[in-house]
Amino acid sequence: MAVFTSVSEAELIAWLGDYSLGQLLELQPIASGIENTNYFVTTGNGRFVLTLFEKLTADELPFYLNLMAHLARHGIPCPSPVASRRNQFLGSLNGKPACIATRLSGKSVTAPSEAQCAAIGAMLGQMHIAGQSFSQVMPNPRGAGWRAATAPQVRPFLDTDQAELFDSEIALHAQSGATRLPQGVIHADLFRDNVLLEGDRVGGLIDFYFACSDALLYDVAITANDWCMQHAEGKLDDARAQAFLRAYHAERPLTDVERCAWPSMLRLAALRFWLSRLYDLHLPRDGELINAHDPRHFERVLRNHIATAQAVWL
Fold first, then answer.
1. pTM of the entire structure?
2. Which of the pair, 284 or 191, is modelled with greater confidence?
3. Gap between the Cα atoms of 216 and 230, Å rounded
4. How many distinct structural domains can be found in the chain?
């Protein structure tokens, strides 16, 4: 269970005294996730999610909380942080920074349809447009500097063939930045388990704690690499990818420069998660190993992207 910091009902009741959320009715730990401790909280005023931040500091968190509040005000279905009676989103609980936010409806899917891929493509485009008016900036903490620092730590765990691929991709993306592409706020982790669906409608985008400022196309590639993938083979499904990209393009039209950069962005997105999954598997923090994903999946995705230059279907 990914609960690193335990919270009792008595502790939560005392903490909720600083909020106008009514009486605590239920406290339920959430088993998923590797970065934070999360609980479902039900009170007399509704359903919420309590998050205790295990890695992010109180100084780093205002960007994420303010971003979610901004997007929610602009009609994007994402968690809306609840302000305390002191008008603050961020508090402290059991020695950890903590916040409570609205709980959204829907559930994640493992095998999305073309219609569902189109729905998330459209919503991602809307999110990118809404984010253009958000004034705060957060350089990508999983950008080129992170890749350069992390790569030597995981390389000893690779065989000769993997190391050759790994080294070449690290070098390639260290030299070619994405700064010439349209920039803005990105989610950076919009996998299927971070989207709640109600049929073909997006009920919520969740887990914004990798959000940052970067190339918008990079966010599109990260999302496509999960939503539009034939996971057993690690190859993009053409029909779902077309539905996803066309729906995104209808909301925020892709530029000619972005179209040309698409194959490179798919590779960079695959490399980012191959690298992070290698790190999580081989160098885990206590309690993380049970949630570590198989890094070989994104190795396969990367190899397939290299073998087949993926076109933009518009």
1. 0.94
2. 191
3. 23
4. 2
